[in-house]
């Protein structure tokens, strides 16, 4: 959030801007604390204290954010932030390049002692391949720091004891299900991801029949479409919706915005959901998903949200930033 500096432990920008139309605070001055307002809290390494109205987030009461209205005013205290879940595509990188300042921001969060996970709904490659791609772009991270929709689904399937699967995901993503048995004859579960051009009537009809015969129906994500280098392309959600309509069964969603995804990411960090900040570019998958789990929601104006505007119907984030590069400053973390 260029030009806006949040004081550690205080829920308003130093320049006094107000999102909800309330009285602006004078530049550099502190407003008198009201009921439930945050008056400053001591912090420890790895514990960042913010302020917000997370317990009761209404939809935006005004129209699209315009000039001078680029952030949400925070007023009620949050619990300490101990972990950060960062969306990848559109937040950390766009296309084949890191968002400017993303690598430095990640380094700053690490030095502050925060637990980090990089979360994604992508089903077109394995976690290992994704990590390799990110490292090539210049981001240093370990495979264990990446949490994907396929890994979320695999953990759920293990808990359910469902080991025989029909996998509708690209071959490159099969590695994340390496400890399961592929069974296209009588599977216990059908897992739907993004097959892209590999989708055809036979594949879709086979999945339909398996589900009708009693197999569990698992969707890795519900995205309707995505931006390719050649334009828009149908995503997995289109085929999930078709199967739900035909079978009259609702899929179990493993990726964002499912609580299953955020719970799994938080557990992998050893933090409670209320102590988690979710950072992403998608008001639906990232902000709404964080709200459902009572995690903090931080929206960045890159990727999917670039050039967009929040409307009344959209879930309200706790904070809006120009890009992930502004995240350390917003959390009170120095470079």
Would you kindly provide a written description of the structure presented here, covering whatever features stand out?
This protein is an alpha/beta fold and 335 residues long. It has two domains: 1-20 and 36-121 and 258-335, Rossmann fold (3-Layer(aba) Sandwich); 150-253, Rossmann fold. It has helices at 102-111, 127-137, 149-160, 201-212, 236-247, 259-269, 283-293, 327-330; strands at 83-87, 93-94, 97-98, 115-120, 146-148, 164-168, 181-182, 189-192, 216-219, 225-228, 231-234, 252-253, 276-280, 296-300, 319-321. A six-stranded parallel sheet has the order 5-4-1-13-14-15, sandwiched between helices. A five-stranded parallel sheet has the order 7-6-8-9-12. A hairpin with a 2-residue loop joins strand 10 (225-228) and strand 11 (231-234). Helix 3 (149-160) packs across helix 6 and helix 4 (201-212) crosses helix 5. The longest helix is centred in the middle third of the chain and has 12 residues, at 149-160. The model is unreliable at 1-53 and 55-79 (pLDDT under 50).
Q: How many individual domains?
A: 2
CATH topology name of the largest domain: Rossmann fold
Give a quick account of the main beta sheet: strands, pairing sense, barrel closure: 6 strands, parallel
- The count of strands amounts to 15
Shape: globular
The CA-CA distance between the termini, in Å, is 15 Å
Order of helices and strands: EEEHEHEHEEEHEEEHEHEHEEH
Number of helices: 8
Corresponding CATH architecture of the largest domain = 3-Layer(aba) Sandwich
Mean pLDDT across all amino acids = 80
- What is the strand arrangement across the widest sheet? 5-4-1-13-14-15
What is the strand content?
15-25%
Structural class: alpha/beta
Percent of residues in helices: 10-25%
Poorly predicted runs of 5 or more residues: 1-53, 55-79
- Oligomeric form of this entry? single chain
Reading off the top of the CATH hierarchy, the class of the largest domain is best stated as: Alpha Beta
Report the C-alpha radius of gyration, rounded. 21 Å
Q: Write out the CATH superfamily name of the largest domain.
A: HAD superfamily/HAD-like
């Amino acid at each position: 959030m260029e030009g806006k500096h949040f004081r550690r432990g205080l829920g308003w920008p130093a320049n006094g801007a107000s999102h909800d139309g309330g009285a602006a605070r004078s530049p550099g001055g502190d407003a008198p604390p009201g009921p439930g307002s945050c008056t400053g809290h001591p912090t420890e390494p790895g514990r960042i204290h913010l302020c917000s109205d997370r317990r009761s987030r209404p939809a935006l009461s005004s129209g699209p954010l315009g000039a001078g209205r680029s952030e949400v005013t925070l007023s009620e205290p949050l619990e300490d932030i101990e972990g950060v879940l960062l969306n990848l595509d559109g937040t950390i990188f766009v296309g084949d390049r890191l968002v400017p300042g993303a690598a430095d921001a990640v380094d700053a969060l690490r030095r502050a002692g925060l637990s980090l996970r990089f979360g994604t709904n992508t089903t077109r490659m394995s976690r290992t391949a994704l990590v390799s791609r990110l490292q090539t772009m210049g981001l240093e991270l370990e495979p264990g720091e990446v949490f994907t929709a396929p890994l979320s689904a695999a953990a759920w399937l293990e808990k359910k004891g469902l080991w025989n699967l029909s996998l509708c995901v690209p071959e490159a993503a099969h590695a994340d299900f390496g400890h399961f048995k592929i069974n296209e004859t009588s599977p216990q579960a059908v897992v739907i991801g993004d097959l892209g051009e590999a989708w055809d009537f036979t594949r879709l009809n086979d999945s339909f029949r398996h589900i009708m015969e009693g197999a569990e129906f698992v969707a890795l994500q519900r995205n309707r479409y995505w931006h390719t280098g050649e334009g828009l392309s149908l995503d997995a959600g289109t085929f999930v919706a078709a199967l739900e309509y035909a079978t009259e069964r609702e899929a179990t969603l493993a990726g964002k915005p499912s609580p299953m995804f955020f719970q799994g990411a938080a557990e992998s960090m050893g933090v409670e959901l209320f102590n988690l900040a979710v950072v992403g570019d998608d008001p639906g998958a990232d902000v709404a998903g964080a709200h459902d789990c009572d995690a903090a929601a931080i929206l960045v104006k890159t990727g999917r949200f670039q050039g967009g505007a929040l409307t009344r119907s959209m879930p309200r984030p706790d904070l809006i930033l120009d890009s992930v590069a502004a995240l350390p400053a917003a959390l009170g973390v120095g470079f």
